[in-house]
Specification:
about 160 residues; mainly alpha; TorD-like
Length: about 160
């Protein structure tokens, strides 16, 4: 798995709810993705209850920190439905059916897709939203900001012909 793929997979795990499986994977995440060490080190010394409460505070109460990429472009409008269809179509084009409990534009799902396929088009198409999320997480002062810092830094520059 190329190093960016490892980073994308590790970032996907870091951006999901921090359950017992996440805690068990922390040592592996720390070694596999040194770009995420600031976050994984923080998670390792933070109690499970405190880390879970922080995740909920950061991601579940405000759209200002939405992990749903189409929200950044479409908000809560009808256009968002077509954007969600686009995510599913891209997954299907790569032989994958989206069957997650979350919507197909959930950032951890998109990162896992990029890790598995090497296709970063969905991430680069939503770079503006990722940058806004990164900035807002930084302003909020959460360790999750370093995860977005690493993801944004690893993204290729936009290519001609990529749909926006």
């Amino acid at each position: 798995m190329p190093s960016d793929a490892v980073l994308y997979q590790a970032a996907a795990l870091c951006l999901t709810y921090p359950d017992d499986d996440f805690r068990a994977r922390l040592p592996l995440l720390r070694e596999a993705a040194p770009q995420l060490r600031a976050f994984t080190d923080h998670a390792a010394v933070t109690s499970p209850q405190e880390l879970a409460a922080h995740y909920v505070q950061v991601f579940d109460f405000k759209n200002r920190h939405s992990l749903y990429l189409s929200w950044w472009r479409d908000g809560d409008t009808r256009r968002r439905g077509m954007s969600l269809v686009r995510f599913k179509d891209v997954y299907r084009e790569h032989g994958l059916e989206f069957s997650g409990e979350e919507l197909p534009d959930f950032l951890p799902a998109v990162l896992e897709f990029a890790a598995r396929t090497g296709n970063t088009d969905l991430l680069t198409e939503h770079r503006d939203g990722l940058e806004q999320l990164r900035s807002r997480l930084t302003d909020f002062g959460t360790p999750y900001a370093c995860v977005l810092d690493a993801v944004c830094a690893a993204l290729p520059t936009a290519r001609a012909g990529v749909r926006r």
